[in-house]
């Protein structure tokens, strides 16, 4: 499944807006790598669950963690 760039930008915006304000640049940087992985077909559910999400977890607003986890499931590619 190919997701339009516009959708990837919305994905990034959705996650960044749920980050703690002082961590938004760090979150943006992590998501840039994730988007590159997505564009090359390497953003697997395992990558999201065991690499990206643990790096983002301390940067997010606590009440937004589950919403972001659900969002990731929509963008995961095959394992």
Cα radius of gyration in angstroms? 11 Å
- What's the end-to-end separation, in Å? 14 Å
- Based on Cα principal axes, name the global outline: globular
Taken in chain order, the helices and strands follow as: HHHH
Q: Report the sheet-strand fraction.
A: under 5%
Derived from helix and strand composition plus strand pairing, the structural class reads mainly alpha
Q: Can you summarize the main beta sheet?
A: none
The residue-averaged pLDDT reads: 86
Number of strands: 0
Range of helix content: 55-70%
> Uncertain segments of ≥5 residues (pLDDT<50)?
none
What's the tally of helices?
A: 4
Describe this structure in words.
With 79 residues, this protein is mainly alpha-helical. 65% of the residues lie in helices and 0% in strands. It is built from 4 helices and no strands. It has helices at 5-16, 24-39, 45-56, 65-75. The protein is globular, with a radius of gyration of 11 Å.
